[in-house]
Amino acid sequence: MENSNQFLETVAEYDQDSLRFQKIEFANKLILNVLTNDIMDTTLDIPLSTQATINDGLSDEDSLGVEPVVLVGNPHNLKIQVVAGQIGKVVRQLKNPRNVILSLGSRWFGSGDSTEDGDFEKLMFVLGNIKKLLE
To answer: What InterPro entries does its record include (predicted)?
Structure first.
């Protein structure tokens, strides 16, 4: 694990895939990369405004609350939208939440228009590793 004031990287294995989780911090932005077998093919902007964070307690728990914007990749992949939204919720819980640029390998999650066995487990695996990275 490499660690400095601005960069942190961890590596984890899931089945036969190697996933690298990277965090790059700036004063007003957080960059998170999730490389699957060294591949990233989708980038999203996850805007987390201060006002949205303040109003979080007032919003409905069933509401997504975080609306990722696809910058590069397939904007119709619902699985990636869900993953990005959940990562946004994790970041929003930090002491100093910031806007996030998230890049990841979307192919690892499969087609965005159908569900597969293991989708939830993959989401939980990614969220668990992102939480560790942000600690």
So the answer is: Psm_Assembly_Chaperone (IPR053720), Psome_chaperone_3/4 (IPR018854)
CATH number at residue 33: 3.30.230.90
Q: pTM (2 decimals)?
A: 0.85
Burial 38-66 (b: 16+ CB within 10 A, else e): eebebbbebebeeebeeebeeeeeeeebb
DSSP 8-state secondary structure symbol assigned to residue 121: H
Report how far apart, in Å, the C-alpha atoms of 135 and of each of 41, 44, 99, 120, 128 are: 26, 22, 17, 23, 11
The mean pLDDT of the chain is: 88
32 is in which domain, residue-wise? Answer: 2-134
**Count of structural domains, the chain:** 1
pLDDT above 80: residue 49: no
Instruction: Indicate the pLDDT class of residue 56, thresholds 50, 70 and 90.
Output: low
Which token pair is 107? Answer: 């192919």
